[in-house]
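hey can u check if this looks right to u? its 219 residues, i copy pasted from the old doc so theres a chance i mangled smth
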Amino acid sequence: MKIDELCSEVFELAKQLGPDGLAHGAQGNISACDRESGLVAVTPSAIPYRVMKPDDIVVTDMFGKVIKGKWTPTTEIKMHTIFFRERLDVNAVVHTHAPYASVFAITNEQIPPVLTEAASCLTGPVPLAPYRAPGSAELAQIVLETIGSGVAVLLAHHGLLTVGQSLAEAYDSTLAAENTARLVIWARSMGSKEITLDPEIQTEVRQSYITYYHPVANE
């Protein structure tokens, strides 16, 4: 996909964060990489989503150097571009301050795998990366190390980050992590203890999702 198309996709997804309850104001940031050109489409710093326009999306290289755009990219640009350099399976990064997921980020615990939805879109429990200063190279590095080969990670006292081969895939993982966190919190508020999915079931559901979950035209 060409960089102009990716800029449009990043813009449209950024506008969806508010309605989906994942951000307000200018919270969070989104990026997508065009592997052919080595260019990255990323949300700008400090532009509220309600007033953001398509041409506000910034184009950088894989080290965050601005190639095109009138604004500076998100202050978390290092946390985005490190994935495009270090993980060739990642073409999109979504970072939000999703409220329910962030509860786990402030209580220093993983989001447990309790739903088949989560098993489909995630790769097990969502791990927690230790606190590092926002926008720092240290944060980018610890997030990369903590997520490993997975698709989602919590940032201690900060929020949630997901990755994927596409923006749609990364965003599905964001929604799955947030929905799981919400339901676990509700279960605990009832005085109940959540029951996690067996690891074998998680693997089975994840593999089925990867293999079969795509549009199929009628013959």
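DSSP finds seven helices and eight strands in the chain.
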